[in-house]
Structure formats: C-alpha cells, structure tokens
C-alpha cells in the first residue's frame, strides 16, 4: 500500500533509475543558487555572453514569424541552415560536410552531446575526459551505462597530450572528448598538438567527440579541428553551435557534423528526442551563419582585452594561473591559499560579494582551482578583481 503525502512520493523514489538518482546538481548550479541569497553580488559564474544577439539576427527571426515559418522542419534542420552551417565550417576551419547527410541541427550543443553519446556508447564503454572539463558530459555518459575516465591535464597547463591519452586507453575506450577552446580553462590545442593525438588514435576503433562550441573565440592563432587531419574525419563527431559565437544561448541552436554512416544513426536518436529544433531559431541561425559569419570577431576582441586584464590582475594578486587562449574563462590555482575550492568560493561570496565557481565542479581533481567567467563588463571585472585581491590579502 503506497501512501501519497503532498507529492513527496513516499515509498516510490526507489523506482527512479539509480543512474539518474546518482546525478548531482552541478557545482555551477549550486553556486548560482547560493548567489541568489545575497544582494549586491558581482557574479563571475556564468557561461552567458554579455553581448546582445546581433540585431540583424533578431530581425530575421521576426521576419520568419511574419512569414509563418512556424511548422516542423525536417528532423535534421532546414536544408538552408544545414547548407549555411556546412559552408561556415568549410570557410572558417577547412572542414567539409555534406549538408544533405552529414549535418544535424540540434537543441543547443547540449543536445548534440546527448544524441552523440547515446548513439555510440554502450554498457561498459569508457570515455576519456580531459579534465578539468565542462560538467555536461559525465551525467550523460553515466546514463548510457558507460564510464567517464578523467584524465588529469593540470600538470601540463591543462593540455591533453597523446602521452596522457596513452596512459588511459583500454580495450573498452569508445570515445575521447576533445574540447578546445576549453571550458573551464580557456586553453586551446594547436594543430601540432592535435596531430600528435591523431597519430596515436588513427589506427584505433574509437570515436572523437570534438566540442568546438568556442571555436570563434580563439585569441592568439586560429582554431584547428581534429576532423581536418588525415584519417580523423571518419571517427570524429564535431559539435558546434551559436550559443557562444553569436550570443544566442536562449535560441538553442547546436550543430553536429559527422560522417554519413554515423550521422544517419545519430539523426534517429535526435528525431525521437526532439523532432526538430525551433523553426524560428533556425531561420535566425541562417542569418547568423550567412550575413553574420564574422559577428563573433568584435566580441572575441573584447574578451581578449578582458582576458589580459583578468590574467594580469590575478598574477598581481599572487595567483598561479595559466594564461587562457580562448572562450571567456580563466582558471587560477588557489592551492597556495590553503582553502578547498568550495570554501574559497563561499567565503569570497560571503565576505566580498564576488561569485566564482569552485574548481571541484569540473573534475575530481579540480579542488585547487576556481573558475572565473569574464563574460561581464570591464567595469564589473575591474571591481571584482579588486575585491578578490583584497580577499586573498586577508587570508
Ligand atoms: C564546452 C561546452 N559545451 C557545450 C555547452 C552547451 O552549449 P549550449 O548552450 O549550446 O547547449 C557549453 C555551455 O556552456 C559548453 O561550455
């Protein structure tokens, strides 16, 4: 006999899948919840660009509504958008994907990660995660019954190397995640570094999931994709999207590129997941990827200015920190201050009203770091850096 008490589902919770019960609220979300309890907080926690979506993109969306573009689109997205996405990738990064069979428009990069993993992982598969890393992969890997294998890159300025991969490869390795530029470290992998990784895995039967959502936000040098290297296209799933490059997080446009033999399976998972992405957002995305192909450049230049400022301020305040080369995050070490990352972040919030994300949110070994997002105004960043400096001086 089950008693229902005010929606608590007493006696029923054990019926929820253990893998789902085991998922914890992300460290980023926990921090955001804590921030809402205080007034006057300078929040450096979010991965939300502080620029508005460019006006010509807004206009294209309004036009789509007026044109009645309000019906289902093909599952993989409109052909117009897939063509625009394919041309964008060719022009920017020299990648070549057939819009008819090798491009899928997803609900943000988040859904691209989900459908990619659910297509390629099975019970017992291992996935190498170069950490510290964005926390969006691990829960999905676990829900597939697969195992995340964290590879600690902190001893190598947060760069994944072929040697580090070699140490963790097993018969069960099904996928290696590459994220360049990286959230939370802002580090990038150069063409030469990718070549070394490609040489190691070229002959192996495994996939690379290359999350390139920050590809337009590289400061020094240009973005390289591992899919452009010989032998790698057939085993790589490239994930990109408009959330960061065009400041379109709420529009939910992700882009997945994969060879036809793989994309034809991924699109089935996507179809039964969401049918298709919003038709209005897709129309806006066509505009972004045609007339707005360089929209990210002024934003990138501004992020680079803030990166320089944040890096110099942290060094001046006594932090050990690797200079990031992309995205809009910086990941200083707090080891010398003798506090774990959650205590550091909570005290900084309580004592100085500055919010950052504890490094523990990004890897089991992330506890000696904090993540600072500089997707905020320069004025706010300046004030926050002053407060951080005075906080560590008082420790
Ligand atoms: C590395 C990385 N991948 C994927 C995502 C998800 O992007 P989207 O908002 O397009 O779902 C994020 C968002 O912060 C991210 O940092």
Automatic annotation (TrEMBL):
Any Pfam family matching the protein: Aminotran_1_2
Gene3D superfamilies: Aspartate Aminotransferase, domain 1, Type I PLP-dependent aspartate aminotransferase-like (Major domain)
Enzyme class: transferase
CDD domains linked to this entry: AAT_like (cd00609)
GO terms assigned for molecular function: transaminase activity
Enzyme Commission no: 2.6.1.-
Keyword annotations of the record: Aminotransferase, Pyridoxal phosphate, Transferase
Tagged with keyword Transferase: yes
Cofactors required: pyridoxal 5'-phosphate
Highest rank taxon of the organism: Bacteria
Record domain Aminotransferase class I/classII large: where: 41-388
Family to which this protein belongs: Belongs to the class-I pyridoxal-phosphate-dependent aminotransferase family.
Record's protein name: Aminotransferase
Organism: Paenibacillus glycanilyticus
């Amino acid at each position: 006999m089950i008693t229902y008490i005010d929606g608590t589902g007493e006696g029923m919770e054990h019926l929820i899948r253990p893998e789902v019960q085991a998922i914890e609220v992300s460290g980023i979300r926990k921090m955001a919840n804590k921030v809402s309890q205080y007034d006057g907080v300078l929040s450096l926690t979010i991965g939300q660009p502080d620029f508005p979506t460019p006006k010509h993109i807004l206009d294209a969306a309004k036009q789509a509504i007026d044109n009645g573009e309000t019906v289902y689109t093909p599952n993989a997205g409109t052909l117009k958008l897939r063509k625009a996405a394919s041309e964008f990738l060719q022009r920017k990064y020299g990648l070549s994907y057939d819009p008819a069979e090798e491009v899928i428009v997803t609900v943000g990069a988040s859904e691209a990660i989900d459908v990619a993993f659910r297509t390629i992982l099975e019970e017992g598969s291992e996935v190498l995660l170069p950490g510290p890393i964005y926390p969006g992969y691990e829960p999905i890997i676990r829900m597939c019954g697969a195992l995340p294998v964290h590879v600690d890159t902190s001893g190598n300025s947060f760069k994944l190397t072929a040697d580090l991969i070699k140490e963790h490869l097993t018969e069960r390795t099904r996928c290696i995640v590459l994220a360049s530029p990286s959230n939370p470290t802002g580090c990038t992998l150069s063409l030469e570094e990718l070549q070394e990784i490609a040489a190691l895995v070229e002959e192996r039967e495994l996939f690379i999931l290359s999350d390139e959502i920050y590809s337009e936000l590289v400061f020094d040098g240009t973005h390289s994709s591992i899919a452009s290297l010989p032998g790698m296209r057939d085993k790589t799933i490239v994930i990109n999207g408009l959330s960061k490059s065009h400041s379109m997080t709420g529009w939910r446009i992700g882009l997945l590129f994969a060879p036809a033999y793989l994309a034809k399976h991924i699109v089935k998972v996507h179809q039964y997941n969401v049918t298709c992405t919003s038709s209005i957002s897709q129309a806006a995305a066509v505009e972004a990827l045609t007339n707005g192909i360089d929209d990210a450049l002024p934003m990138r230049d501004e992020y680079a200015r803030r990166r320089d400022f944040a890096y110099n301020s942290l060094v001046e305040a006594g932090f050990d920190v690797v200079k990031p080369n992309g995205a809009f995050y910086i990941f200083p070490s707090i080891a010398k201050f003798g506090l774990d990352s959650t205590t550091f972040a909570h005290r900084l919030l309580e004592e100085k009203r500055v919010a950052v994300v504890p490094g523990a949110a990004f890897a089991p070994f992330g506890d000696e770091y904090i993540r600072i997002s500089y997707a905020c105004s320069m004025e706010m960043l300046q004030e926050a850096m002053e407060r951080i400096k005075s906080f560590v001086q008082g420790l």
